[in-house]
Amino acid sequence: MHTSILVLGGGPAGIEAALTAASYHDRVTLVTEGTVGDWKHTTTATWLSCLSEWPRDPPPGQSALLDMIKRAERVQRRWMRASAEQLAAANVTVITGRAFFTSPCSVHVQQHQAAGGIDIQADRIIIAVGSRPVFPERLRPDGSTVFSFHTLDQMNTLPETILVIGEGPIGFEAVHLFSRLGSKVRWLVQPEGPKCWFDPAIDRYLVELYRSNGVTIHPGVWSDMDRTKNSVIVSGGGAEYKAALAFVTAGFTSNVDQLNLGTAGLTFNCYGSLDGNAFGQTTAEHIYVAGDAQRSMAGVYATGCARVAALHAVGRTPDPLDMSCLPVTFHDSPQVGTVGIVDAAAAPGIHCIVREFSQRNFKAEVREDSSGFVKIVWNDEGVIIGGTVVGAQAKELITTLAIMVKMKSRLVDFDSFPAAHPSMNETLLHAIHYASDLYTNRGV
User: Fold this and answer.
1) Domain tally for the chain?
2) Which of 28, 49, 295, 393 has the smallest CB count inside 10 Å?
3) What does the alpha-carbon distance between residue 237 and residue 257 come to, in Å, rounded to a whole number?
4) How many CB atoms lie within 10 A of CB 228?
5) Cα separation of 89 and 360, whole Å?
6) Among residues 303, 321, 339, which one ends one of the domains?
7) Angstrom distance (rounded) from CA 128 to CA 13
């Protein structure tokens, strides 16, 4: 068969690429090895969304664990069904099977439990096959006593004690999740940790929260693990910690190594993925790479890259994805979001203010949750260049702030613009007004 645009991958990036391309071409095909809409972070995202429903004291315990597992399954089924319906409505042809290149413009799809498979010729090919987690061999999850984000649905008993090994967003979320469930958490981090790698202000805020929930933090180099039927022992640098279960954060490697790329004339870079230009275009100009297949970062990065690649592939001239205004989020209860430059000490001429959620935020009082903060960052010209939000609805607020960064908005542009009252957006606008007054009166 022949298709104008062939998308390899049925996750968030693949769906974004296919739906975008389908707005311009009537012959778009998507090939997925699994089910369209299957996302590796669905379980974690669903579990975290439950946090706002749980009482803080006493912790919800085992019953909440079983409820979350069932809820994640329901969410996954609904999302996969909705994704398939959206693709069908856009007249995207979906083929299930394992794809690999047979020439620069041809892909063979070996369909499950079918002989022969399908050969597809394509004018443009977008590789969005995602990535998979990788672990040090001795710390590899087994779904029995050692888990990670992709095996949480195999955990059928809430542990009394758990070791969380590693940091970054996945580590922070695991610590928060298990401590809120009622497990005693020991967090094993790097010597300078813990760090989420976005904004040190986030680290400080969340660490204080975790410690208030009884989490203990142990910096070190953790390289060895012993497992028994009922416990896990992790050691390193002369220290040793034991718990009923362990959770290990992950690194990621691209799935492009499964596509027989040599046949397409492509070679891997030093990270085991593919290099692409600002539009995702590889050295073979008709082949694009997008999302985790190129670089595992965040869902917003994956879908953003996929849309840019699809627009370029259909002949549009999109702007490259602008990392300086990409809203990155993680965590829940509180939500966390950040965009652009967040460190006032990063360079001369950068300024910031921090406002607590409890300041002039009636909506937060109505919600009975006024914890959190907003940080606004601007330059000497009064242009908003970044910020951080931690608290209720931070993932929505950070997108609004990201649009301001994208449009190079000035603080004074919002001097006469109020937010809806009462709303969480008032927190953001009050912070911007406060920053604008400082900038206007003091020139900072």
Assistant:
1) 3
2) 49
3) 35
4) 9
5) 45
6) 321
7) 6
Q: Which of 199, 230, 249 is the last residue of a domain?
A: 249
The pLDDT tens digits for 218-274 are 999 887 899 988 899 998 878 899 999 999 998 888 889 999 999 999 999 888 888
Pair 210, 148 in one domain: yes
Residues 47 and 110 in one domain: yes
DSSP, collapsed to helix, strand or coil, labels residue 41 as coil
Q: How far apart are CA 49 and CA 284, in angstroms?
A: 42
What whole-number distance in Å separates Cα of residue 277 and Cα of residue 371? 42
The helix (run of H) or strand (run of E) holding residue 287 is strand 287-289
Q: Is 389 within 8 Å of 372 (Cβ atoms)?
A: yes
Q: What is the DSSP letter of 344?
A: T
In contact, 68 and 50? CB cutoff 8 Å: yes
Length of the chain, please?
Answer: 444
Region at 304 (left for phi over 0; alpha for psi -120 to 50; beta for the rest): alpha
Domain of residue 24: give its range: 2-133+252-321
How far apart are alpha carbons 417 and 133 in whole angstroms? 45
Of 345, 352, 404, which is closest to residue 377 (Cα–Cα)? 352
Q: Which residues contact 310 (CB under 8 A, 6 or more apart)?
A: 5, 7, 16, 17, 18, 20, 21, 126
The one-character DSSP state at 56 is S
Do 217 and 238 have their domain in common? Answer: yes
At 356, list the tokens.
Answer: 């607590």
- Spatial contact of 432 and 414, defined as CB atoms under 8 Å apart: yes
Phi-psi region of 148 (alpha: psi -120 to 50; beta: other; left: phi over 0): beta
* Same domain assignment for residues 171 and 120: no
At 265, phi and psi to the nearest 5?
Answer: 80, 20
Residue 290 sits in the same domain as residue 373: no
Examine the domain organization and report whether 31 and 126 are in the same domain. Answer: yes
Angle subtended at Cα 405 by Cα 401 and Cα 409, rounded to the nearest 5 degrees: 100
Q: What is the pTM of this model?
A: 0.91
pLDDT tens digits, 345-357: 888 999 999 999 8
| Region for 268 from its dihedrals, namely left if φ exceeds 0, alpha if ψ lies in -120 to 50, beta otherwise | beta
Structure tokens at 414: 């919002």
Phi, psi of 427 (to 5 degrees): -55, -45
> pLDDT category, 164, cuts 50, 70, 90?
very high
Burial of 123 (0-12, 13-18, 19+ CB in 10 A): middle
